[in-house]
Amino acid sequence: MPSVTPISRLLPRLLVCAALSIASQAAAAPAPRVAVAVPAKPAPAHYHLKRHPVVALTFDDVPAGGGLHTGETRVGIITRLINELNANHLKGVYGFVNGTGIDDDPDLQQSLRLWIAAGMNIGNHTFDHPALDDTTAQAYIHDIAINEPTLRKYDPGGDWHWFRYPYLEEGNTVEKREAVRGWLRQHGYRIAEVTLNFQDDDWDDPYGRCLAKHDEAGIAWLKQSYMENAAEFIREGREEQLIAFGHEVPNVLLLHETDFTTLMLPSLVKLLRGEGFRFQPLAKIARNPVYSLDPDFPNPGGGSITNQVLDKHNLRYPPFKPEPVDKLNDLCN
Ligand SMILES: [Zn+2]
User: Would you give per-residue pLDDT tens digits along the chain (333 residues)?
Assistant: First the structure.
């Protein structure tokens, strides 16, 4: 099932060992390799964040993100998500699609049609959501390629040559990494790198369990902790950029098309606006040179582009409060 991120994959930044490098992302025309900018000074004791950062929202695991809770349909979830994006005048938002199961499920088919009809975009997230760390480059590339007929079928005129790595795993060896990137370049893809990510999908399974038990207190805790975790990792992700790049960059926020993230989206948008964020399309944000970096470094466990640069150069992370993994696992069990 593509939708559920195993808890073992939580917080790749904690697994840090990894390294990275930065190399090119392929657009229709491959971008040149860009050297990694390493700040000359140590990280500041107090971070001064921009008053008006920018961000593109992106959604992974479309159209089947997370579990399908009692009485819910995929069409129901994606309709609420589209309505909320429309209410905030967010057009052309990217949803990264896994094609698995769509041919056999009218609910998934209609969900994808509604997403496209609403003016949203789709990108490639592989067919079956493999983890690159656990497979060969050859098998992984095959899984990307067999997802293309679905993208072409539902959005024949769309700009779907954007690739989001499942689990943000870009390769646990340099050879694997280069093999996949080479194929993506040759086939006209850009890599949809991420700068902000707070593991939003980890709240969806406990939400389903609490719904089934009518546990209102549990749901209230999920809502509160989701927002606290979002605020913490958005701040920390921005501070990481000061260390990795010497300045903040336009952001790409990874979210998942789950029932719970859809429920929380109004609060999340309010949080972002409250922190001064303005919304921009992915293609515009990805013009920033950071999104053309190739750390050219193995990063087992995966991570954002910022994480990759920090790890490659062995830079320290800002302090942060970790996700409440144990309580998420235990709640409503
Ligand atoms: Zn995914």
Answer: 443 333 333 333 333 222 222 323 233 333 333 444 444 444 555 688 999 999 999 999 999 999 999 889 999 999 999 999 999 999 999 999 999 999 999 999 999 999 999 999 999 999 999 999 999 999 999 999 999 999 999 999 999 999 999 999 999 999 999 999 999 999 999 999 999 999 999 999 999 999 999 999 999 999 999 999 999 999 999 999 999 999 999 999 999 999 999 999 999 999 999 999 999 999 999 999 999 999 999 999 999 999 999 999 999 999 999 999 999 999 999
Separation of CA 172 and ligand 1 centre (Å): 18
195, 252 contact by CB (below 8 A): yes
| Spacing of C-alpha 7 from chain mean position | 16
Residue 64 Cα to ligand 1 middle (Å):
10
CA of 301 to the centre of ligand 1 (A): 14
CATH of 7-330, one of 3.20.20.370, 3.40.50.300, 3.90.930.1, 1.10.1270.20: 3.20.20.370
Q: How far is the CA of 94 from the centre of ligand 1 (A)?
A: 13
Kind and range of the H or E element at 122? strand 121-124
296: burial class by Cβ within 10 Å (0-12, 13-18, 19+)? buried
Q: How far is the CA of 66 from the centre of ligand 1 (A)?
A: 10
What is the Å distance from ligand 1's center to 247 Cα?
A: 28
- Environment of ion ligand 1 (residues, CB < 5 A): 60-61, 166
- Spans of all domains in the chain: 7-330
